[in-house]
Every structure is written in C-alpha cells, then in structure tokens.
Amino acid sequence: RVDQVQDFYPTPGTLSTCMYYTGVDPRTMKEVYVATSPHDKALQRALIQYSKPNNYFLVKEALIKANRQDLIGKGPKCLIGTLPPKGATVQTKNKKFQKRV
Q1: Nearest-CA neighbor of 93 among 36, 37, 39, 35?
Q2: How many CB atoms lie within 10 A of CB 43?
Q3: Dihedral sign, CA of 6, 85, 38, 24?
Q4: 63: which of 13, 70, 91, 95 lies 20 to 30 Å off by Cα?
C-alpha cells in the first residue's frame, strides 16, 4: 500500500510536462485529463491511498464522480466499504475544521 505521494512538478523538455501544460498527448493529439485544482489533486491522492481511513470521503466522492460506484461495497474488488471506517474525517474546504465521524 502506498504511504507517500508526491505532487507532479513539471520539468522542462519532458513529455509529461508538455501534457500537463497543454492537456494534449503530443503523440496522439488526444485530450488528456490534468488535475490542476487542489481539490482534484486531493481526490487523486486519496484514490492512490484509498486504504487510509481519513481519505474515505474523498475516495467515495472520486468514485462517484468517475461513475465507479461498483467499487464501493463489501465485495473483494471494492476499494471502500459502504460505511465510513473509524477515524474517517469529513474534510471541509478550510482544513482547519475537520470533523471526525
């Protein structure tokens, strides 16, 4: 399980930097999704660290946004359960005010 995640830092002259700034894959000229807002980056980070209880609500939001509710439940292929685990926090826009569930 992934414990640490680093934000993407564009470095000049790389293919990934080109995609980050343009939103286009230069090899195929097809549009690619680039998370630029802090909230979208938090959703991606939470998906990578889905097993951490404090990411539960972000993971659930991301899965619903991606229309992947099939990954919410009790089955062996599910990332998160239907109910939040102990220690899950509801994250507000102002991170100073996190409410424990």
Answers
A1: 39
A2: 19
A3: positive
A4: 95
